[in-house]
Specification:
- The protein is built from two helices and 38 strands.
- It is mainly beta.
- It is globular and about 95 Å long.
């Protein structure tokens, strides 16, 4: 094969584009009144010169009252049909362009009317409709159900969409204000939620911009219960990608609506937390974040769900999902589904992992959800977790449940039939040869025994040799600063957990040696001589661990300055 010159490729493409009009069928121009598309066979807008075939009827043409409706107004749609329309129903919906990608339900608005040869539909554009493009979906139903549109070849089409309309941003921002981010550029005015079904949470955000944001940012939504268990997550650009921040108009209300799928059996409760985070998509840098308490009011009913164990206290265990293995230092997480068969008296569950040792915890049946509020027939999922210490003996363990009433009296016992394997880790106990020995300690738990240092261009490669003096009580983060020696202010840095977050300190045991290669970029650092400093901190609070040198003397600011200096030419 020989490479094709770029000029020849461009020439071929130009010839094809020029030839398309000559090859196209000769149809009479009809304007835009017959343009349709679907996402299964014909995903681009195209003309339908003979009308769009729905079997007994054909859509001949349509007309909008406006292509740019405003929230709080309406869109008048006039349609002409041929064929026998008697007994048929026309359904028209205003939907997000992401409806196909995200499988969203009905959308912003829905109208159903009897089908007539000439029919006019007034489609409301609700307040809170996101500005930007929206699609108009059309369907026809008969006595026996939906009529499938077809191509002239007979192939069945999917849902039919007319040409898009552009919803204008005309409303001023609300007076309420929850957060101001990016030096005042972006404002989050309101966060509202509703739960239309047990498996769906609707989230509505109101944004505004005081000046055009630079670049396109992403939105992350997380729903967590009081125990920190995550029940739903969505990571997307505003408007499911159709309201990008780079196109936000200034000084206008920008409604943004999302639908978060919830797992079957998500517990009802009033103490869930919805986290809303705005971030720069190119760097993952957080622009701002806010957390708001939200309720879940809907309950999944499944009175005929299978029963794995009738435990008493009005509850039965319907289902269990338990991992088959867990490593030392990790958390075993599982889900139990409870079926309410009578007035619930059970209040909590004692879980025991029995094997070479015994691990146990008494936990809520479903964190943040009171079983006394569960109606008969409810099917409720409860998430539970048990941390396996890093020094727990490896081997086969059995998970045992004891259901307890409010006074701690047992109501029933269930033994999970599948064993859980606690897997041991390959650990290192001997220090390797090191270029520099340090011997500094952090919080009495972690020793920096020494390090190796090399430099390649603008990249600093540092291998830190840590040793656990005791078993650390949690997962800590460390930092490496290239800093001005006069002010200790970093000019370059990296923060992380050991081995790229794959081996956090909560998995270490006393005496273990962990060698951790890290890199610090010196790109853009001004010329000069800098110091290299290392420290540890709690990621929850930001508080640094106490640092001491090899002689045991306390060091200022929880940091150890390494003996090597870094020179940037």
């Amino acid at each position: 094969m020989f490479p094709v010159p770029l000029w020849l490729s461009l020439l071929c493409a130009l010839c094809i584009l020029c030839a398309l009009p000559l090859l196209a069928p000769r149809y009479e121009a009809r304007g835009e009144g017959d343009l349709t598309m679907d996402f299964e066979q014909m995903p681009l807008l195209h003309h339908n010169p003979g009308g769009l075939d729905f079997g007994p009827v054909r859509l001949l043409r349509y007309e909008y009252s406006t292509d740019r409706p405003a929230p709080g107004g309406s869109l008048r749609l006039t349609m002409e049909w041929s064929g026998e329309t008697e007994g048929l129903t026309l359904t028209v919906r205003l939907v997000s362009p992401a409806v196909h990608l995200r499988h969203l339900p009905d959308g912003w608005a829905k109208v159903q009317v009897p089908l007539r040869p000439r029919v006019e539909v007034v489609l409301p554009v609700p307040e809170g409709t996101s500005p930007g493009p929206s699609l108009v979906a059309v369907g026809v139903e008969g006595p026996e159900g939906r009529l499938s549109p077809r191509l002239p070849s007979g192939r069945t089409l999917g849902t039919i969409y007319l040409r898009p309309v552009w919803v204008q941003a005309v409303e001023p921002p609300p007076d309420e204000m929850l957060a101001v981010w990016a030096d005042g550029t972006v404002r989050l005015h309101r966060v509202r939620t509703s739960q239309p079904t047990p498996t769906l949470l609707e989230v509505r955000l109101d944004w505004s911009a005081t000046r055009p944001p630079v670049g396109n940012w992403g939105v992350n939504l997380r729903l967590i219960d009081p125990a920190g268990n995550e029940w739903a997550r969505l990571d997307v650009q505003p408007g499911y990608g159709f309201l990008p921040t780079g196109l936000w108009p200034v000084g206008r209300r920008l409604p943004d609506r999302y639908l978060l799928p919830l797992p079957d059996g998500t517990p009802p409760g009033s103490a869930y937390t919805l986290e809303v985070t705005l971030y720069r998509m190119t760097t993952w840098e957080k622009v701002g974040a806010i957390a708001q308490t939200v309720p879940l009011t809907q309950t999944t009913f499944r009175p005929d769900a299978p029963v794995r164990a009738a435990l008493g206290g009005g509850l039965a265990l319907s289902r269990m999902e338990v991992p088959g293995q867990v490593q030392q230092g990790e958390t075993l997480r599982w889900t139990a589904w409870w079926l309410v068969r009578g007035e619930p008296r059970a209040a909590q569950a004692e879980w025991r992992l029995e094997g070479p040792t015994v691990l146990s915890a008494t936990l809520p049946l479903a964190p943040g959800s009171d079983p006394a509020d569960w109606p008969v027939g409810a099917w409720v999922a409860g998430k539970a977790a048990l941390r396996v210490p890093p020094d727990a003996p490896p081997g086969s363990y059995t998970l045992i449940l004891t259901l307890l009433d409010a006074d701690g009296r047992p109501l029933g016992v269930y033994t999970h039939p599948r064993a859980v394997e606690v897997e041991g880790r390959a650990r290192v106990w001997e220090l390797p040869p090191m270029e520099r020995e340090v011997g500094a300690t952090f919080g009495g738990m972690i020793e920096l025994a020494g390090y190796d240092l090399e430099r390649e261009g603008a990249t600093l490669r540092l291998t830190l040799h840590w040793r656990a003096l005791t078993t650390p009580d949690r997962d800590y983060k460390f930092f490496v600063h290239v800093a001005d020696p006069a002010t200790a202010r970093p000019v370059a840095q990296m923060d992380g957990m050991p081995r790229g977050y794959t081996y956090p300190t909560g998995r270490w045991v006393a005496g273990e040696v962990v060698s951790d290669p890290v890199e610090v970029s010196l790109e853009g650092v001004p010329p000069g001589e800098y110091e290299l400093a290392v420290g540890w901190y709690d990621p929850e609070t930001g508080e640094r661990l106490e640092a001491r040198d090899a002689a045991g003397d306390l060091l200022p600011d929880g940091r150890v300055v390494l003996p090597d200096r870094i020179k940037v030419p």
